[in-house]
């Protein structure tokens, strides 16, 4: 099974896991979000069984990039591949003192409803 993680870097990790009593080599490809690396990033996509698409719960723009950049890009190269959406930085969303956008005072975190 091969997974590709879309994030801020390009890194490859592997480990062996047991699935239903059978040992499987799990490869995690952590790829960069920078557009300068678009052509390089998609090289990791072929034969991917599942994408773990991570976004920050503390930043609405991060979720918007999932909708407008990452899902379309993944679907263009891997039409029927499973995508698991992973919300990160939950602790910041739960801390109300960190939820305001300093530029305009609006709440900048992703709500429960927006993240589902």
Automatic annotation (TrEMBL):
<dbReference type="Pfam" id="PF00071">
    <property type="entry name" value="Ras"/>
</dbReference>
<dbReference type="GO" id="GO:0007264">
    <property type="term" value="P:small GTPase-mediated signal transduction"/>
</dbReference>
<dbReference type="GO" id="GO:0003924">
    <property type="term" value="F:GTPase activity"/>
</dbReference>
<keyword id="KW-0547">Nucleotide-binding</keyword>
<protein>
    <submittedName>
        <fullName>Ras-related C3 botulinum toxin substrate 1</fullName>
    </submittedName>
</protein>
<dbReference type="InterPro" id="IPR001806">
    <property type="entry name" value="Small_GTPase"/>
</dbReference>
<dbReference type="InterPro" id="IPR003578">
    <property type="entry name" value="Small_GTPase_Rho"/>
</dbReference>
<keyword id="KW-0342">GTP-binding</keyword>
<dbReference type="GO" id="GO:0005525">
    <property type="term" value="F:GTP binding"/>
</dbReference>
<feature type="region of interest" description="Disordered">
    <location>
        <begin position="95"/>
        <end position="116"/>
    </location>
</feature>
<dbReference type="InterPro" id="IPR027417">
    <property type="entry name" value="P-loop_NTPase"/>
</dbReference>
